[in-house]
Each structure stands twice: as structure tokens, then as C-alpha cells.
Design brief:
This protein is α+β, with helices and mostly antiparallel strands and 456 residues long. The protein has three domains: 165 residues, Serine Threonine Protein Phosphatase 5, Tetratricopeptide repeat; 108 residues, no CATH class; 81 residues, Sporulation related repeat (Alpha-Beta Plaits). The chain has 14 helices and 15 strands. The chain has a five-stranded antiparallel beta sheet with strand order 12-13-11-14-15, with helices on one face. The chain has a four-stranded antiparallel beta sheet with strand order 3-4-9-10, with no helix packed on it. It has a four-stranded antiparallel beta sheet with strand order 6-7-5-8. Helix 3 packs antiparallel against helix 4 and helix 4 packs across helix 6.
Length: 456
């Protein structure tokens, strides 16, 4: 009995500690974690994180939207999802910044998930009312979402509820349908069904917006090519150039997602992998995908290889089924996303980056060290010290700077003037040194062989 009591105390202590650690993390850290979980199809894992954020700030519509989205995708807590999404809908804005960690308003897609939630609940009048509202505010970036909204209206009331629970008994074919990345309905691709016909009831008719004409041809997933340069994230963040990715086939195209990140990484950061394409999704998350196969079996073979390379969270996606893979990233900070490291590497000590006033402790550093440089990047003034050929020397200088009153100084690596990770820099230097050593060995061996021939 004593041992049981002791174990109970230990378990309680551990859970309390974990809960405290969870609460001690910053709001933005949890928000980033939740977005990454959603991008990796781990909505059920994202739910407790978002619930904690919502408990801290129940007026944040963006968090309410993401939490409602997760409930809908997991087919659980449907009534809660409806309440969250209805409240969040009041703060819809066309200027929604999907990449900002401080955004509190919501995008137009709050209507899309609300349509699904009402359909799952079986509230068909609310489903069609929300669908009509969606027509009025939608930006028409991809008409497929409107077509899929119609499908959910047609399926309204067909979902069985679990007894005494706020969740849906979901048939296998519905479980196989990913709501955020759903497959295009076959009837919209192979038949001549009008875009907005066939979904009216006796009591409620669909308002056909002027922006979409009733057509005798299927909706096409083709948009004009364009590129645009825009800043992603907060001030001082990376500038990202994207372009619309168009696919010539209306059928599914399968790839393997190998990673998802809040801040962009270069495609060559994935050791052991090649042909990695980069996309930015509706939530501002950068997704990294290999391949575009017509047959799922081909993607499954590739997934097996990727898993063997150590990418345990990799999974198969349909890149032709949603906007999440239709905005391709081609440049970051005026560099190709597929950048290869070439040429020289140098290390510097970054003293600080400041928007306006420079702190006194930084000003004092100017009197203590030579070779301090200032570089303007956007709205920031970035101060660095020195130029070193290897990380160890730069790290020693960094320690001197810290001891002189700048405790947050750190070492950066530059390749031809552009920042790269310390890890990539050291790997590149080690690889280059190994190549030079091998070259020297071959020259030495050739020289010895030449001398032997002369002696003969």
C-alpha cells in the first residue's frame, strides 16, 4: 500500500512538472508547435497544445480557428468546433497574414471548415447558409474549395453520431479522405456537372454568385503563372519569392513529405535526400516534398527509402489535391531555395541586430574591439566582429565578447556573404579538406610512381 501511494506521488509530481514546463513555454513557441503538428497531419496531437493556448487567451480568433479545424479533421468535438469557428468567423479579414505568429484574425477558410462541421452535425440549413456566405467572401484562389463545399452539403445528415458523444462514427472511406488535403471528387473532374447546380433543397436554394458562371465544363486546376516577392513572418524575417505551381493532370499526384518548418530551410539541408521541392501552405508553414507520382505504389516505394534514411515522420501526400502544395518557394533572401554551398566560408561574431536605438553595452564594444562591421538588412542594423577561417577561432573571440558585456553574442557562418548554418559550414569545410587531402595523396602517389619509372 505504501509503495502504491509512493508511486502515485511520483507520477503526480512528474505530471505536475510536465504541466508546469508546458505553461512556462512562450505562447509563440506553442503556436509554432501546433502549426507544425497540423502540417504533419497530427491534428490530435495539436489539440492539447491549442486548448492550452485558447485557455490562456480565448479572444484569439486564430487559435480558435485552428483548434476548431483540428476538431473537425479528427471528427471529434463537433459542437465545440462549431462554437469556436462561429466565434472566429466574426474576425475574418482579407488581410490575414498566415505566416505571422501574432496574427489574431482568421482567413476565409474558417467558412470552409464550418461548412464541414455543420455537415457532420447534420444541420443542413446552417451548412447551406455558411456555403452561401463562403461564396460571397471567397477570393477564388482555387474554386475547388467551393466545389468541395457543395459536396459536403450534399452529404449533410449522412454521418452517424456516437451515442452520448460529441463525435462522428466515421466510415472507412471517410477516414481515408484528408479534409485539408482532400482528393478532388471524381464527378467534378470527369463529368460536365455544372459548378453550382444540383445542391438546392425545397426550402433553401443556393445563391449563385456572379463571380462563378454556371459552366458546362469541369472545374480546372490550372491558374496563370506568376511570381511575387514578399516578406514572410515578422519584420526582419526572410524574403521569399514564390510562384504558382500548376499541374497538367486533374488526377492525384503522390509525393512524400519529409519535413515541415515555420522558417524556411534550403532543400539541401536534408542529408541523404535529393530532388526536394519546397511549398508554403495556407497556414504559412514550409513543406518539403519529394516526387509527384501518378501511382500511389510508386510513392510508397519512395517512402520506404526515405524512412530508411532516418526521416521517421515522412508520409505520403497528394500534392494535386489542395492549395497546400500549389505555391512553390523558389528563392529565399534572393538565393535559390536549392542553393549549393560553393566557394569560401567565413565565420563572424554577431554582436546584435537592432531596429532603432543601439544599447549602451553594444556602444562600449566599439571601444574594445577592432573590425566591427555594420550591415543593413531590411529595418535592422546588424553588427558583426571579425572574419575567421574556422569555427574554433570565431568561438574563442565570441567568448571574449560575451565576457566584455554582450552575453547574447553568437557565431555566424557566411558563404559568399550569405548566412548558412554552422553545421552546414563545418560539414562543407570538412568535405573540402577531405577532397584536398585526397587530391594531395593522389599527386604524391603519382609523383612516387613517376620516380619509380625513372629508376627502371
Amino acid at each position: 500500500m505504501k509503495y502504491t501511494f509512493l508511486i502515485a506521488i511520483i507520477v503526480y509530481g512528474l505530471s505536475t512538472t510536465q504541466a508546469q514546463e508546458f505553461k512556462n513555454k512562450s505562447y509563440s513557441e506553442h503556436f509554432k508547435a501546433a502549426k507544425l503538428l497540423i502540417a504533419n497531419n497530427k491534428e490530435e496531437e495539436a489539440v492539447p497544445v491549442l486548448e492550452e493556448l485558447y485557455s490562456r487567451d480565448n479572444e484569439n480568433s486564430n487559435v480558435a480557428y485552428l483548434l476548431g479545424l483540428c476538431y473537425v479533421k479528427s471528427f471529434k468535438n463537433i459542437n465545440k468546433a462549431i462554437k469556436l469557428l462561429e466565434d472566429a468567423k466574426e474576425n475574418y479579414t482579407r488581410s490575414y497574414d498566415r505566416t505571422s505568429l501574432t496574427e489574431r484574425d482568421v482567413s476565409e477558410y474558417v467558412y470552409y471548415y464550418l461548412i464541414i462541421a455543420y455537415s457532420l452535425k447534420g444541420d443542413c440549413p446552417k451548412t447551406i447558409e455558411t456555403l452561401n456566405s463562403f461564396y460571397k467572401i471567397y477570393s477564388y484562389e482555387d474554386e475547388w474549395y467551393l466545389v468541395d463545399g457543395q459536396k459536403w452539403y450534399r452529404d449533410c445528415g449522412k454521418h452517424k453520431w456516437k451515442e452520448d458523444e460529441d463525435s462522428i462514427v466515421t466510415p472507412k472511406e471517410l477516414l481515408d479522405t484528408n479534409i485539408v488535403m482532400p482528393e478532388k471528387p471524381a464527378d467534378t473532374l470527369k463529368t460536365a456537372e455544372p459548378v453550382l447546380e444540383g445542391i438546392a433543397t425545397e426550402k433553401t436554394e443556393v445563391e449563385t454568385p456572379k463571380a462563378i458562371a454556371v459552366a458546362a465544363t469541369p472545374v480546372k486546376n490550372i491558374r496563370p503563372y506568376h511570381e511575387r516577392l514578399r516578406r514572410v513572418g515578422e519584420a526582419g524575417g526572410p524574403e521569399v519569392m514564390t510562384r504558382e505551381k500548376t499541374y497538367t493532370t486533374p488526377t492525384s499526384l503522390y509525393g512524400v513529405q519529409v519535413g515541415a518548418f515555420i522558417r524556411p530551410r534550403f532543400s539541401n539541408d536534408f542529408n541523404g535526400l535529393k530532388n526536394v521541392e519546397v511549398y508554403i501552405d495556407n497556414n504559412g508553414v514550409f513543406r518539403y516534398v519529394i516526387g509527384s507520382f501518378v501511382y500511389r505504389s510508386q510513392a510508397e516505394k519512395l517512402l520506404k527509402y526515405v524512412l530508411e534514411k532516418g526521416y521517421k515522420d515522412a508520409f505520403i501526400v497528394d500534392i494535386n489535391a489542395t492549395q497546400n502544395y500549389q505555391e512553390e518557394v523558389i528563392r529565399v533572401n534572393n538565393e535559390s531555395i536549392k542553393r549549393e554551398i560553393t566557394g569560401s566560408i567565413e565565420f563572424k561574431v554577431q554582436i546584435g541586430a537592432f531596429k532603432e536605438e543601439i544599447p549602451d553595452d553594444i556602444m562600449k564594444i566599439f571601444l574594445q574591439f577592432d573590425n566591427i562591421e555594420k550591415k543593413i538588412q531590411g529595418e535592422l542594423s546588424i553588427f558583426t566582429l571579425g572574419s575567421f577561417s574556422n569555427y574554433e577561432i570565431a568561438s574563442a573571440w565570441c567568448q571574449n565578447v560575451k565576457e566584455s558585456g554582450v552575453p547574447d553574442a553568437f557565431v555566424i557562418a557566411l558563404n559568399e556573404g550569405h548566412k548558412i548554418s554552422i553545421e552546414d559550414a563545418n560539414l562543407y569545410i570538412a568535405k573540402k579538406q577531405a577532397q584536398e587531402a585526397e587530391k594531395a595523396r593522389q599527386l604524391e602517389e603519382a609523383s612516387r610512381n613517376k620516380k619509380k619509372k625513372k629508376k627502371k
